[in-house]
């Protein structure tokens, strides 16, 4: 059995417009790296973090909390050390905390000979998400662990479903370099939703899932609409409407807020369109004076992987 391994822990896009807290997908070209080892010294230790200013204390780092949740079920006497090489910025809205939580439990499970299923790992990784945002959501950790597109059909009991990934689907993501904390962007959301909006939203969720399975790109595009969260949250994101218009004008199927923002995602059919969309978004953001990063990626159907 391996005593140490190195993994790629991918970025993820949660919500996907209509699926607040329930839908997500996994990226291929952006992600953290982690080195996770079993040691004879019991307990979970974060021994190194590069690329971000994050806490080394086990109970303050999502990776430590998630692994501790796993060991509480498996065997508390096991020793684990974790090195995190952060490429996904915290508060980016592309699952920075989820990559660490999911990556850490996936790696420990692998080192132990895979005693837990991917679905069980989701529950451990959710403990890390609870630390990051106060809410044990699964819409980032599920796609990181299962790959592709995922649906959290129910939180109680947890029921996570991996969906089909149409083969030509590509994603373009812009990350404006401003930090929007998940807790802040949650505070602008209202607790009540009108029936009229709810009907439109669940119609879109059904449409998006049908579109993913039938590989009907136009249906996917029509369904990428959010009448509940986006109107409230988009005001926190500079030039959101201009980015969206520019992306659609260049052929994107749809465009929305990635997770809790400030990142914005667009889905496209084919790499050429996804690159054209990236160029259009870049032109919009070049005029803002803000720093930003743009990623173009295919959908990563595997999720976390050994490297
Ligand atoms: P994202 O939306 O990109 O996942 P969040 O705002 O949900 O970002 O999570 C980032 C928060 O989690 C920050 O407050 C950060 O300090 C905390 N955190 C703790 N450990 C980690 C870690 N290993 N990786 C990323 N964020 C972490």
From TrEMBL:
NCBIfam families: PRK01212.1-4, thrB. PANTHER family: HOMOSERINE KINASE, HOMOSERINE/4-DIPHOSPHOCYTIDYL-2-C-METHYL-D-ERYTHRITOL KINASE. Residues 66-148 form the GHMP kinase N-terminal domain. Pathway: Amino-acid biosynthesis; L-threonine biosynthesis; L-threonine from L-aspartate: step 4/5. Catalyzes the ATP-dependent phosphorylation of L-homoserine to L-homoserine phosphate. The keyword Amino-acid biosynthesis applies. Belongs to the GHMP kinase family. Homoserine kinase subfamily. HAMAP family: Homoser_kinase (MF_00384). One of its GO terms (molecular function) is homoserine kinase activity. InterPro entries: GHMP_kinase_C_dom, GHMP_kinase_C_sf, GHMP_kinase_N_dom, Homoserine_kinase, Ribosomal_Su5_D2-typ_SF, Ribsml_uS5_D2-typ_fold_subgr. Pfam families: GHMP_kinases_C (PF08544), GHMP_kinases_N (PF00288). The keyword Cytoplasm applies. Keywords: Amino-acid biosynthesis, ATP-binding, Cytoplasm, Kinase, Nucleotide-binding, Threonine biosynthesis, Transferase. This is Homoserine kinase. Residues 209-286 form the GHMP kinase C-terminal domain. It catalyses: L-homoserine + ATP = O-phospho-L-homoserine + ADP + H(+). Its EC number is 2.7.1.39. It is found in: Cytoplasm. It comes from the Bacteria. The gene is thrB. Coiled coil: none annotated. It is an enzyme of class 2 (transferase).
């Amino acid at each position: 059995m391996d005593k140490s391994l190195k993994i790629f822990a991918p970025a993820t896009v949660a919500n996907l417009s209509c699926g607040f807290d329930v839908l997500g997908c996994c990226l291929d070209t952006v992600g953290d790296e982690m080195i996770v080892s079993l040691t004879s010294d019991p307990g979970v230790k974060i021994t190194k973090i590069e690329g971000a200013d994050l806490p080394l204390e086990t109970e303050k780092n999502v990776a430590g909390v998630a692994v501790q949740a796993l060991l509480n079920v498996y065997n508390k006497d096991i020793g684990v050390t974790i090195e995190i090489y952060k490429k996904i910025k915290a508060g980016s809205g592309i699952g920075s905390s989820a990559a660490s939580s999911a990556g850490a439990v996936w790696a420990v499970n692998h080192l132990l000979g895979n005693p837990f299923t991917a679905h069980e790992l989701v529950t451990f990784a959710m403990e890390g998400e609870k630390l990051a945002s106060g809410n044990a959501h699964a819409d980032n950790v599920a796609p990181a662990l299962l790959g592709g597109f995922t649906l959290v059909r129910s939180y109680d009991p947890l029921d996570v479903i991996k969906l089909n990934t149409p083969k030509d689907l590509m994603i373009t993501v812009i990350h404006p370099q401003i930090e929007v904390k998940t807790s802040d962007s949650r505070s602008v959301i209202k607790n009540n939703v009108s029936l009229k909006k709810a009907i439109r939203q669940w119609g879109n969720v059904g449409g998006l899932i049908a579109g993913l399975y039938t590989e009907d790109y136009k249906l996917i595009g029509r369904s990428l609409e959010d009448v509940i969260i986006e109107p409230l949250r988009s005001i926190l994101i500079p030039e959101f409407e201009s980015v969206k218009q520019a992306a659609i004008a260049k052929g994107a199927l749809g465009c929305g807020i990635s997770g809790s923002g400030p990142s914005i995602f667009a889905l496209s059919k084919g790499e050429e369109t996804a690159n054209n969309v990236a160029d259009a978004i870049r032109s919009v953001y070049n005029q803002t004076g803000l720093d930003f990063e743009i990623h173009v990626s295919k959908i990563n159907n595997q999720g976390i992987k050994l490297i």
